Amino acid sequence: MEIILKKDIENLGHENDLVTVKNGYGRNFLIPKGFAILATASVKKMHDENIRQRAHKEEKLKNDAIALAAQLENKKLKISAKASTTGKIFGSVGNIQLAEAIAKKGFQIDKKSISIEGDTVKEVGTYTAVIKLHKEVKVEIEFKVVSE
């Protein structure tokens, strides 16, 4: 079954992508939840026209994301957390704290677009996070967790 995605779906595709899925997944989950629409001949024709019209806007968004990635690439972040004498953090540091630290530097990044290896940080040290600014633009940012 061919469908057109209305939203980005992890491990399936991005918004406005034409993808093929199994019938049950499409009819019972994606379409009723509003994540996709059935790709009939007329819908495909309208979809192609919309894609053509949106190409210019997408290029501008991609260029903005590339410029933001260039600014973020050289930034070093420092996140302080309460920790024991052995370096173990009380709680954890996740993408929420990282988004707040980036916001303090003057950049508004959605916490959902930040991914940290292992999802959470539980010890003091230096780590790397990946920020997805656009479907084609990702930037790695280094951050250091220190004890308060």
Name some characteristics of this structure:
148 residues, alpha+beta, Ribosomal Protein L9, domain 1, Ribosomal Protein L9, domain 2
Q: What fraction, in percent, of the residue positions are helical?
A: 25-40%
Broad CATH class of the largest domain: Alpha Beta
The number of domains is: 2
Using DSSP, what is the number of strands?
A: 9
Mean pLDDT: 89
- Beginning-to-end CA distance, first to last residue: 55 Å
Would you kindly provide a written description of the structure presented here, covering whatever features stand out?
- The protein has 148 residues and is an alpha+beta fold.
- The chain has two domains: 2-68, Ribosomal protein L9, N-terminal domain (Ribosomal Protein L9, domain 1); 76-147, Ribosomal Protein L9, domain 2 (Roll).
- The protein is 36% helix and 33% strand.
- The protein has helices at 23-33, 41-73, 95-104; strands spanning 2-5, 18-20, 36-38, 76-81, 88-93, 114-116, 121-123, 125-134, 137-147.
- The longest helix has 33 residues, at 41-73.
- It is elongated and about 65 Å long.
- The model has no long low-confidence stretch (mean pLDDT 89).
